[in-house]
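We emphasize that the prediction below concerns an isolated chain of 366 residues; any contacts that depend on oligomerization or on bound cofactors are therefore not represented. The input was used exactly as deposited, without trimming of termini.
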Amino acid sequence: MIRLDHSVRFHATAQIVLPSFYSLKPAPPNRSDSRVKILIVGAAGMIGRKLCDRLARDGGLAGAVIDEAHLADIAAPPPLKAPFKVVLEACDMAASYVPPKLAARRPDVIFLLASIVSGEAEVDFDKGYAVNLGGTHALFEAIRREHILSGGAYRPRLIFTSSIAVFGAPFPPVIDDEFLPAPLTSYGTEKAICELLLADYSRRGFFDGVGLRLPTICVRPGAPNKAASGFFSGIIREPLAGKEAILPVGDDVRHWHASPRSAIEFLVRAAGLDTSLLGARRTLTLPGVSATVGEQIEALRNVAGEKAVRLIRREPDETIGRIVAGWPMNFDPARAKSLGFRADADFSAIVQAYIEDDVPRAIKRP
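Result of the prediction step, given as a token string:
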């Protein structure tokens, strides 16, 4: 059983009267401050590292110059060469003292990327809820405390990475923005609860939240992780490196994908978004590419030939098959598109982005 330590959380709100100028209006997309402080929680992960690199190249975000970037994760993020101050910290979001410590620096923009991945959350129920829900809620509370202590002046933009796992079967052929989240996994449930918290804390004015339901990010560079969706990347990444890849599902499995390159664009755009356009619905389902495993394999064949395809070994896995069967396959993300969010043109473009961004040398078809 999990015992969440609430000893450092702020529970004195009944004794505080919010000031009369307390405002529920969304923060502007471009802040009046010429310099901003950034917090990235989950900065050592793949998306976190790519986001750090992007911010270091740009030197700014949402029309403001970055003054400081606080990079935090369970393992210390790698050093970052940047034109602004960089603070590196190894910390556990599930530890009660960590969220108040992160919020105490009062960053202007917070990217909340950290979470236990889907497969691990399904295997380890306690860990999934402790980190994905408990850690997120604790950070929300820590920000609320700083907001109240500032007399309502502190109200950061918070970008929370959610997931299409918040949706559960049965699905229509195409899921639109009115489809009800009803997850069928612990991971999806944790993310759905956090979406509701994000909306409520934003409604109350404690922070200015934007939730992003990311497609499955593919092709992920580096070593495989424990995500149930990891094979979607593995069947491209490993053969391109001359290694065997395990395929636990059939070729007819269809899923919703976006490249890491697109994911970074989503995050940067969310940081400068005019949230008055979101209304009370603070989370967006993002654009992606709907492709079957067979179409993925064909894209691999077009790039690297039959020799690479032969490195895919089919090994059915009942648990992964059951999880994937409960995931959505295709979307019509009209809200996000109307706000300027764009994804890759097709799955071949996703493979090409991986080769350009993460493979040391271009791979030519034999």
